[in-house]
Fold each of these.
Amino acid sequence: MRRTIIDLRNIMQREGMDAWISPSSDAHQSEYPGEYDKCRRFLSGFTGSAGTLLVMKEEAFLWTDGRYFLQADAELKDSGITLMKMGEPGVPTLDEFLEEKMKSGEVLGFNGALLSFAEGKVIANKVVKKGVKLKIGRDITGEIWSDRPKRPHSKIFILEEKYSGKSAALKINEVREKMGDSDLLVVSSLSDIAWLTNLRAFDIKCNPLFLSYFILEKERALLFVQEEALSEEVNIYLKQQDMEVLPYDDFDKYVDGINNKKVLYDEAD
């Protein structure tokens, strides 16, 4: 039995959770999450790029696809985690499994930032009707990951208009015009934010992107970003383009404060 699974179960017991989902994604559904965000790998020991871990009180399961069956068999040996071979006959999907196994009154937990709205909705639709409660919140994995790598924050640079085609201010105004009667637009896709701001960096492997969130209101454009990634030049640029800078870690708190407003967002993010 992996020590990480034992430690996670101790936290689950403290938090009153009967099951915990750990996906492979980061908060932006990036194809190549950074080392900081590889919680599923840390917990399970499975190093493949795709997979979802489910830890319950007495059992644990990991879903992955055919590219990784042999690798997962080897890496999960003696871990106490059962391999669920996706697409194979008789192997249920994660949501089907949860619907079958979880009972009324039990609590299913996961870090809401790591599952897209669409994924979370599928799971919720399966289990809530059975009386299962959801505990969507923080990343409890961080409590047991003592040597967790730092979150990347490479220096952000400006993409000149001769390459981007339009100024960020113009793009922002054009998007506002498409918002209709909505009060705000929430953007978590890093590629969308890079396009909208005309900024680039190298926080994500193989992609010129930077960790950030963007909220567009009728009168304000808010960029949530790690302050360490900003140079004086970029700070001046952001002011020129009428964008306000807020700390990356303040995004969740800001969203929690949104009430009685019509919000646009992409369910895939």
Amino acid sequence: DQTLFEYGQLIQKKASLEDRLRDTIQQPAVTLDGQQVTLTANIEQASDAAEVRAVGAEGVGLFRTEYLFINSETPPGEEQQYKAYRSAAVALDPLPLTIRTLDLGGDKLMAHIPLPREMNPFLGWRAIRFCLQERDIFREQLRAILRASAQGNVKMMFPMISGLDELLQATAIVEEHKAELRNEKIPFDENIQIGAMIETPSAAIVSDSLAKRLKFFSIGTNDLIQYSLAVDRMNEKIAHLYEPTHPAIVRLIKATTEAAHRHGIKVSVCGEMAGDPELCALLLGLGVDELSVSPPLIPPVKFLVRRLKMSEAKSLAEFALDCESAAEILGRCQVLARQIAPSLFENK
């Protein structure tokens, strides 16, 4: 009887939390002291756009276009990609749709595009490196994105930029294809915003140079952590070394947001840190403007944001920047999250 009673209490608490999260969907993501936070969604296919609106997201911060390739028996051509991007843009309009160019390689492979066997695939021929060499594939995707941008709410970003040279090469190719479309009298957004993923230590370190030439940054914390700490989180023997609150990661994020804000551009985080209610206060305190997470995580993240004071987030970030211990930083993050939104963590 006691066990049944305890589980009945758990069911009631869970139902109550779900009701409160549902009520949060239509509420703005504003902290208690009036700071607006942008919450967007990560999607993998155009049909996911409907769910974005349903959970109260403010657009798409990351459209992972590689899944158009992985889920197809043959490589999608320009027209097929254009239809997918445009349908997502139409479904979201006027909310923004941020399309990431092909991030092939690492753990994302396709049978119809043979890749060489590599000793270290995450350090190899992937993402923007692949696209800069496979110009035909890159050309079809860029043209498709540019054509979809005629809808007016499309942004584009490049993955795994490691330095200025790669960025300049990629943007030069975009300009080539803009010229093609002008000559063909095919409409596109002449002022499409172009950004880059910050997911290598080198990109974070030279973020000031990158920020001068871009309209936004998106920090991919999953790769930034594994590249910075030299840790494969899928390796069970060293997975404990994968620490999002490592002081080095905290300082790289802070350096990135400071560089961006010096040049008047905004910073989002689209990695797993953004969707962790225990860590989002730290990210906001470090200067992150936007959190982009999988659609089901929008309500709990917004629930926490609406119970947070930005002054608390900044104090947390100041502590983290002065701290030498990842465990102590994580502990401080957990204490704050549980103080302001205890119901999110009652069953953890």
